[in-house]
Amino acid sequence: MTDDPSTPTPIISPSPNRRSFLQLLTASSVTVGGVIVVWPFINSLNSQNTTLEQNFVDIDISSLKAGQQITVTWQGHPVFILNRPAEALQALQDSNLVSRLRDPDSKELQQPSYTQNWHRSIRPETAVLIGSCTHLGCVPTLKLGAKLGSFYNCACHGSRFDLAGRVYKSVPAPYNLPIPPYTYLKPNIIRIGENPKGQEFDFTKIKQL
Ligand code: FES
């Protein structure tokens, strides 16, 4: 990724050799409970003022470029929104990766039925994941590498998830990362906390947070 004057300056600057695929935190317009607020930067959960009472959060992802991720809070949970580039989508379908996953087909109820697919999302390029390890709830970190080298790492006890939030075998975490109910209000506006029209999903019924 080259420097782009239109791109907001991140609070935490990425190292130059990894700028194409990092957790950059971009400016976003966010609607919380129906009230539009401007979110200058979503850097940490502490920087947000969402509360447990707010049922939905609207996120403008128009400035989220390939390889970038933002973290927002919904119902007290960190939510990763990652723009997965083409190479990451290819990796998700690689048999070498799939064979190392505990629940590659998302059979456990950890996501809405409308995201029960190989990319675990409504649109392949945009992942929406609860960023809470299903072992004991630590927040995994996005680690980036070539081909199959990208994953979410939970530093607490070594659990690992792919970029669709699917848990690897032989790690402490038993389940894939949960996916919240969400829908697209517009092509670039995601509402977290609401299902698409005609769809149902009760987040409280998932196997494990
Ligand atoms: S909390 Fe993530 S591995 Fe234990």
From TrEMBL:
TM helices/strands, residue ranges: 21-42
What Enzyme Commission number(s) apply to this enzyme? 7.1.1.8
Tell where it localizes.
Cell membrane
> Reaction catalysed?
a quinol + 2 Fe(III)-[cytochrome c](out) = a quinone + 2 Fe(II)-[cytochrome c](out) + 2 H(+)(out)
- According to its UniProt record, this protein's enzyme class is translocase
Keyword Magnesium annotated: no
Q: Residues in domain Rieske?
A: 93-191
| Keywords, ordered alphabetically | 2Fe-2S, Cell membrane, Disulfide bond, Electron transport, Iron, Iron-sulfur, Membrane, Metal-binding, Translocase, Transmembrane, Transmembrane helix, Transport
Query: InterPro entries from the entry?
Result: Rieske_2Fe-2S, Rieske_2Fe-2S_sf, Rieske_Fe-S_prot, Rieske_Fe-S_prot_C, Ubiq_cytC_Rdtase_Fe-S_su_TAT, Ubiquinol_cyt_c_Rdtase_Fe-S-su
Its biological purpose is as follows: Component of the ubiquinol-cytochrome c reductase complex (complex III or cytochrome b-c1 complex), which is a respiratory chain that generates an electrochemical potential coupled to ATP synthesis.
Q: What else is known?
A: The Rieske protein is a high potential 2Fe-2S protein.
Q: Which NCBIfam families match?
A: Rieske_proteo
Q: Subunit structure of this entry?
A: The main subunits of complex b-c1 are: cytochrome b, cytochrome c1 and the Rieske protein.
Q: Which PANTHER family match?
A: CYTOCHROME B-C1 COMPLEX SUBUNIT RIESKE, MITOCHONDRIAL (PTHR10134)
What is the official name of this protein in its record?
Ubiquinol-cytochrome c reductase iron-sulfur subunit
